[in-house]
Design goal:
The complex is a heterodimer of chains A (324) and B (399). By secondary structure, chain A is an alpha/beta fold. Chain A is built from twelve helices and 14 strands. By secondary structure, chain B is α/β, with parallel strands linked by helices. Classes of the chains: A alpha/beta (324), B alpha/beta (399). Bound molecules: thiamine diphosphate (TPP) and magnesium ion.
Chain lengths: 324, 399
């Protein structure tokens, strides 16, 4: 066990899997010599060479399209998109090609690849260095979508994603890249995709979050406990596939649901989670499910703290739900 | 095998042109580096200096302001007074020489290092600084990162972060002006990195196919964050990319403001006369890190920057002005002191404004009029702030 931050855990996972599996290659802007603008790929080119850790020209569509071709030819590419906000130039490749390749070829082909991207706000990044585009990807059948919140999960889930037979969009919460620290197992053991984790058992209200907002939800739950409100906190970790059993079992017990995400509310993944739980837990619900989310605006700069669903707003929602 | 690959690399279309190569080296070089003023401030061909003394002095002042502003703002960023900065140190001639050659009614579609051009066009310095602070008086209402300004009165379009997106916007503006019968030639700036983007291809192709009056100005500064230009493109020059699109490409010493201005003026005249678009390859150098978030020591040896210090565009213009007696040492000092004072006054003015835009501004301008959900969410947020002031407390984020 070593104490790592989330960034180091990502780096550890890439290094571990590249040592284990010669098919794994990393490509993207500034990932090679520099080791990535966040340094997630630091040291990889020195160890694995320029053919396996590739600095590409500036074109996300090219990065993802080339990764798809590599996957067809038998490699396990792990392209990096420098910021999730710059995945949009690659959307045609991700949505039209990567997501549909298996289906449209009648299962003859697959593209096992992992598109890593730092996402999320709280770093003074304005519109284009802050967004949380998970809903776009979850909405596209054929993609798996994984969002770790802790270093341990970042390593275990990234290993699993690289070994997965399907394409995975791996969203890394850059706001806690360095702030999230914890014990990370050495070795190459993967964590299964599609399993949520109850990080805090509780009885009165279920609070669901992922990525950076899990840390806010956890903080809100601790503050609620001080007020005598007992929250159960779930870190979904994998949004597609979704661990609906864990969510439903929890809401069946608590009768209350607060969903937290930093993406805008309209058509955010929270809407789906609320719909799924009310379909299954309707007679158990004690209060309407509440979404604490980013707002229906582009991501702002100065007022980003107001925009983000941080602990105080989550706590407010928890109180309102319990008092309903 | 590695050696073979490397050998193949240099055998590509034309030997990679040295960034330092002298103008017009090699007979038959289809894209010679156009230069008017050499590094010592000497002019070989007087007929190519098209700027009058007054105009040269104005450009000199604008470049000194651009430099001083960048230096001051980088310091401010280190002090935590602004969140981020991306400057044009070393690239002032490319930015300002091109802008100065345009008509005041020509649109400018900037990348993110061209605030010098916005100021040249009349954006008040205090307004630019308010944008950097993202405060209540910011023209952009504090929504974008620093250096993402927009200034409508000067037809200076809104800066975006995604690389290359502005290129096709310029094409559309030129197209519209032709439909409307207006003589308007847009100038669009982008970096060498942007030449790899799909938008570069789309923009140049559209413009050439429709024979549109657009000036594509590539601030070819040698780097895209950590990637040197010779890893961005296997073409020996950016200028030669124009050929395949069916347009004119011109390679210019981007640290010679007189040459940049002359080439841009020529391209503008040609475009206005129906001669179609031009791709300007303004060869310059990014002297600093990519931005205040970057530390170039991780990928670039200090020694490779050294030769560019003596090619400094401001020093070069200053030598020309001194030689011509348009300026003396005291005059140089005077300009420095003036711009420093100008920055100081504007900064005091900007920092005196309320630091945070009002809550409701968060929900404005998403649409012409807020929809129901923006109105409801504003009420929700206002209620949350009232219930717990920490909702609006920036310090809480790092608790
Ligand atoms: C579509 C997109 N991908 C990646 C980025 C991240 N990024 C910001 S600037 C930059 C390099 C741009 O280089 P260049 O075009 O040469 O402009 P310069 O910074 O040198 O002026 C990159 C990769 C981005 N802003 N947009
Ligand atoms: Mg560049």
């Amino acid at each position: 066990m070593a104490a790592l931050n989330l960034l180091q855990a990502v780096n550890d996972a890439l290094r571990t899997e590249m040592r284990r599996d010669p098919r794994v290659v990393v490509l993207g802007e500034d990932v090679g010599r520099f080791g990535g603008v966040f340094r997630a790929t630091a040291g990889l080119q020195a160890e694995f060479g320029e053919e396996r850790v590739v600095d590409t020209p500036l074109a996300e569509g090219g990065i993802v399209g080339a990764a798809l071709g590599m996957a067809l030819q038998g490699l396990r590419p792990v392209p990096e998109i420098q910021f999730a906000d710059f995945a949009f130039p690659a959307f045609d490749q991700i949505l039209s090609e990567v997501a549909k390749y298996r289906y449209r070829s009648g299962g003859q082909f697959a593209c096992p690849l992992v598109i890593r991207m730092p996402y999320g706000g709280g770093i003074h990044g304005g519109h284009y260095h802050s967004q949380s585009p998970e809903a776009h990807f979850i909405h596209t059948a054929g993609l798996k979508v994984v969002v770790p919140a802790t270093p341990r999960d970042a390593k275990g889930l990234l290993l699993a994603a690289i070994r997965d037979p399907d394409p995975v969009v791996f969203l890394e919460p850059k706001r806690v890249y360095r702030a999230a620290r914890g014990e990370v197992p050495e070795g190459d053991e993967a964590l299964p995709l599609g399993q949520a984790v109850v990080t805090r058992p509780g009885t009165q209200v279920t609070v669901v979050a992922w990525g950076a907002m899990w840390h806010e939800a956890d903080r809100a739950a601790r503050e609620a406990a001080a007020e005598g409100i007992d929250c159960e906190v779930i870190d979904l970790r994998s949004l597609q596939p979704l661990d609906l059993d864990t969510l439903v079992a929890s809401v069946d017990r608590t009768g209350r649901l607060v969903v937290v995400h930093e993406a805008p509310r309209t058509c955010g993944f929270g809407a789906e989670l609320v719909a799924l739980t009310q379909e299954r837990c309707f007679l158990r619900l004690e209060a309407p499910a509440v979404r604490v989310t980013g707002f229906d605006t582009p991501f702002p700069y100065t007022l980003e703290n107001e925009y983000l669903p941080r602990a105080p707003r989550i706590l407010d929602a928890i109180r309102r739900t319990v008092r309903f | 095998m590695r050696a073979e690959r490397e050998a193949a690399r240099v055998e590509r279309v034309g030997a990679p042109a040295s960034r330092e190569s002298a103008p017009g080296t090699g007979a038959g070089d289809p894209f010679p580096l156009e230069r008017v003023v050499d590094e010592d401030g000497l002019v070989a061909d007087e007929s190519r200096v098209l700027l009058a003394g007054e105009e040269l002095l104005r450009l000199h002042r604008a470049m000194v302001l651009d430099r001083a502003l960048d230096e001051r703002m980088i310091t401010l960023q280190r002090q935590g007074r602004i969140g981020f900065y991306v400057g044009a140190i070393g690239e002032e001639a490319a930015v300002l020489g091109a802008a100065a050659a345009m008509a005041p009614t020509d649109w400018i579609f900037p990348c993110y290092r061209e605030h010098g051009a916005a100021l040249l066009r009349g954006m008040p310095l205090a307004a630019f600084l308010c944008d950097l602070l993202g405060n209540a008086a910011a023209p952009g209402k504090g929504r974008q990162m620093p250096c993402h300004e927009a200034w409508r009165p000067a037809r200076y379009a809104s800066v975006s972060s995604p690389i290359g997106t502005q290129i096709s916007h310029a094409v559309g503006a030129a197209w519209a002006a032709r439909i409307q019968g207006e003589e308007m030639v847009p100038l669009v700036y982008f970096g060498d990195g942007a030449t790899s983007s799909g938008e570069f291809h789309v923009g140049l192709n559209f413009a050439a196919v429709r024979h549109l009056p657009v000036i594509f100005a590539c601030r070819n500064n040698g780097w895209a964050i950590s990637l040197p230009t010779d890893r961005q493109t296997a073409a020996a020059t950016v200028a030669q990319k124009a050929v395949a699109y069916g347009m004119l490409g011109v390679r210019v010493d981007g640290n010679d403001v007189v040459a940049v201005h002359a080439a841009t003026r020529r391209a503008r005249a040609r475009a206005a006369a129906g001669g179609g678009p031009t791709l300007l390859d303004l060869v310059t150098y990014r002297m600093e890190g990519h931005s205040t978030s970057d530390d170039p020591r991780a990928y670039r040896a200090a020694a490779v920057v050294e030769p560019w210090r003596r090619r400094d565009p401001i020093e070069r213009l200053r030598r020309l002005l001194l030689r011509r007696g348009l300026l003396d040492d005291a005059g140089v000092e005077r300009v420095r002191a003036e711009v420093a004072a100008e920055i100081q006054v504007a900064l005091a003015e900007a920092e005196a404004r309320p630091p945070r835009p009002p809550l409701e501004s968060l929900f404005e301008d998403v649409y012409a009029e807020p929809l129901r959900q923006q109105r409801e969410q504003l009420a929700e947020l206002a209620g949350a702030v009232a219930a717990d002031p920490r909702v609006a407390d920036p310090r809480h984020a790092d608790a």
